[in-house]
Write a structure and sequence with these properties.
single chain; 349 residues; mainly beta; Methylamine Dehydrogenase, Chain H; six-stranded antiparallel beta sheet
């Protein structure tokens, strides 16, 4: 999935809504049993799974859409192209894919479809231009990742593709380059094509291949990073040490402790009013620049919020899962919450 300005997914967790993408007036939810397509204006819901259309996918790890509205699914059974209710699956039998476990999919601006495939403990990257496939792995490129937690594609204005899976890789359209590490965990890009990376407690700014340590005040694992429209860099940490959020304004760091209600910050986004929203394992928090608010309204009381899309159809959309199998999505229009779970909307689980 990748919504505009928001391209991060955490794939392996207790969340039943794995991913979100948005286009036109539709919100697509990748779940552990097919997908849901919701019209955000009418709230009409279309459920697509094996039972009703024969969709050959159970777990949908990643969703994205191409410029023509085609939906692409990264699944446990391959890469699926979906147009309306017509689908086609690419897998080991009809493509160069070395395996059928597609952990991430990204639709580039030029129409290329990128996917990250896990097979025999190795990650391969595939590019499909609609006619031909290109595959990159340890046998023909610098791609040499055997594991990882976050699998993420980011595209900069030049069309170069960055891929994160422990190491950071860059594809300039012809050649790959690699920035080795101990373990890069997550990344973000600003409007000037600078890349921000976390490695343990360290935050780097990468500009034209040059790494600068931003000297983050956090001494624990940084697990989420986000650049807002004002070019502030926001960093969330793991469930160790203090509950904290960090902001870098280009010169200095500010640490926010008071009001943070959960250790795990899974995702950070901002809305049109430049409020910062935190998706945490304890719910959704809003930071207006001075105070934090936590809001469970419209969310299950034990929501583990994993993914957020801001500013879509003037609403904030949240995907989350909970320990009691009551995961779902919620929307917030600035005043009211609406919650959609498999119990009240037919949402797949």
């Amino acid at each position: 999935m990748n919504a505009t300005g928001l391209q991060d997914k955490v794939f392996f967790n207790k969340n039943y809504c794995y991913s979100l993408c948005s286009y036109d007036d539709k919100l697509v939810v990748g779940t552990s049993y097919g997908i849901q397509i919701r019209n955000v204006n009418s709230n009409a819901v279309e459920l697509l799974n094996y039972e009703n259309i024969g969709l050959p996918a159970r777990i949908v790890f990643s969703v994205d859409h191409s410029n023509d509205g085609t939906i692409w699914l990264g699944c446990d059974s391959g890469l699926i192209k979906l147009k309306g209710q017509t689908f086609y699956r690419y897998d080991m039998s009809n493509s160069p894919m070395p395996g059928n476990f597609v952990l991430s999919v990204y639709c580039a601006k030029n129409g290329d479809i990128w996917s990250a495939v896990l097979s025999n403990g190795e990650i391969s990257l595939l590019k499909y231009d609609g006619l031909a496939w290109s595959i990159y792995n340890s046998s023909n490129s610098v791609i040499n990742s055997s594991s990882g937690y976050n699998f993420k594609f980011v595209e900069i204005s030049t069309g170069d593709i960055y891929f994160l899976c422990e190491d950071l890789y860059r594809f300039d359209g012809i050649n790959w380059s690699v920035f080795s590490s101990n373990f890069y965990f997550t990344m973000a890009v600003d409007s000037s094509d600078n890349i921000y990376l976390t490695e343990g407690s360290v935050v780097y700014k990468v500009s034209n291949g040059s790494f600068v340590n931003l000297n983050s005040p956090n001494t624990f694992q940084n697990v989420e990073i986000f650049v807002d429209s004002l070019q502030n860099v926001w960093v969330g940490k793991s469930a160790i040490g203090n509950k904290a959020l960090y902001k870098f304004n280009g010169t200095s760091w500010t640490t926010y402790l008071a009001g943070i209600t959960d250790y795990n910050i899974n995702e950070i986004v901002s809305d049109k009013q430049n409020n910062i929203w935190l998706a945490t394992s304890g719910g959704l928090q809003k930071f207006n620049g001075s105070t934090f608010q936590i809001n469970y309204v419209g969310l299950p009381s034990n929501a583990d919020v994993q993914d957020v899309i801001p500013n879509y159809q003037n609403k904030l959309w949240v995907a989350g899962g909970v320990l009691d199998d009551n995961g779902g999505i919620s929307s917030y229009d600035g005043e009211n919450w609406n919650s959609y779970t498999r119990y009240n909307s037919g949402l797949l689980h």
